[in-house]
Design brief:
The protein is α/β, with parallel strands linked by helices and about 350 residues long. The protein is built from 16 helices and 12 strands. Helix 4 packs parallel to helix 8 (about 185-205). The longest helix has about 35 residues, at about 20-55. The N and C termini lie far apart (about 75 Å).
Length: about 350
């Protein structure tokens, strides 16, 4: 072996493979994937901005139709548009507008009976020429059922047949091939959300209404009200301000809330005695000869029946207390505990 060859071999043994070359095989595809994902999201976001800018008075006419529905809002579409239509129908239903999805192919085999007078139909088709929609579109025209179209082609069969057409901007689908429904279905979904929320606001749909339709899960827990959790009636630990402390301690022990409410002659909550108050008076030899008025803390923290349970939990955590009396017109109508809120999943 020549001196030069021996030197090169020695350098090869000393010098490890370059980190840049070693990682390029793994980082290259990952970096390309990241770039592709960002490109898709940016393209779809741009399409939504354009859609928002292109909205005109037709959205108001569509909302007029939907607000006047006495039956249900029927959402229909085929393929990927159909999947989006199912979600839009669910959003309408959960925000106070009775709604259902009807599969256009099934409609041709009997499900047209689900679309009746008093309903309105919202049909989704990017091209506006989806032949499976023909029968349901004809059905709406025959029975004067309002039809709203969401399509990229306002001059299409669907677009020209509809009472109101909400056109989607003509932008390309995402990706290098721009074939799979992506940008178009994103715009359909967002426009469905826009209709549902705008209709919700027009109807004055409240958080109480929303909670009634979402009793389960985190939404239901967040929207629980104090009235849903409070203890009432004979469970309330109450005693007159003129009563003796011996009676107050007996009432507090019997009701196990760690407190007793002091009420005046008119039934209003004048104060509260807690087990903490008792500990602070433990060295008072005359405690049992005192009246409730002598020991109580006046003007305690309270809460109203209509408050969210989350608000009650916040107050109790903030003030390091475990119970709150619930008042109506200054009179105690219930008591809610920290434990009740936590048990119900309020956080």
């Amino acid at each position: 072996m020549t001196a030069r060859a021996r030197g090169e071999a020695s350098e090869a043994r000393k010098t490890p493979a370059s980190p840049a070359h070693a990682s390029s095989a793994t980082e290259g595809p990952a970096a390309e994937g990241l770039e592709a994902a960002r490109r898709v999201l940016t393209q779809e976001a741009d399409a939504l901005v354009r859609l928002a800018g292109d909205l005109d008075e037709r959205i108001g006419r569509a909302l007029d139709i939907l607000a006047g529905v006495t039956g249900r809002v029927v959402i229909t579409g085929m393929g990927k548009s159909g999947h989006v239509a199912r979600k839009i129908a669910a959003t309408f239903a959960s925000t106070g507008t009775p709604s259902l999805f009807v599969h256009p192919a099934e409609a041709s085999h009997g499900d047209l009976g689900m679309v009746t007078a008093g309903d309105a139909v919202v049909a989704l088709s990017n091209s506006g020429e989806t032949f499976e929609l023909a029968d349901i579109v004809s059905h709406t025209r025959r029975w004067s059922i309002p039809l709203i179209a969401i399509t990229s082609n306002a001059a299409s069969t669907l677009g020209t047949a509809a009472d109101v057409t909400l056109p989607l901007p003509k932008v390309g689908e995402a990706g290098s091939m721009a074939i799979a429904p992506t940008t178009s279905t994103t715009m359909m979904l967002a426009l469905g959300d826009a209709l549902a929320v705008a209709l919700l606001e027009r109807k004055g749909f409240s958080t109480d209404d929303f909670r009634a339709l979402h009793p389960g899960g985190k939404l239901g827990q967040k929207l629980l009200r104090v009235a849903d959790l409070m203890h009432v009636g004979k469970e309330l630990p109450l005693i007159s301000v003129e009563s003796g402390m011996q009676q107050a301690i007996l009432e507090m022990t019997a009701k196990t809330y760690g407190c007793v409410g002091a009420i005046d002659a008119g039934g209003h909550l004048a104060g509260i005695i807690t087990d903490g108050d008792l500990r602070r008076h433990i060295d008072d030899a005359d405690l049992l000869r005192r009246t409730v008025r002598d020991v109580m803390t006046a003007h305690p923290r309270t809460i109203r029946t209509g408050a969210l349970a989350a608000e009650a939990l916040h107050v109790m955590n903030e003030k390091s207390i475990t119970s709150l009396f619930v008042l109506e017109d200054g009179k105690p109508v219930g008591i809610v505990r920290l434990h009740d809120c936590l048990k119900a999943g309020v956080a």
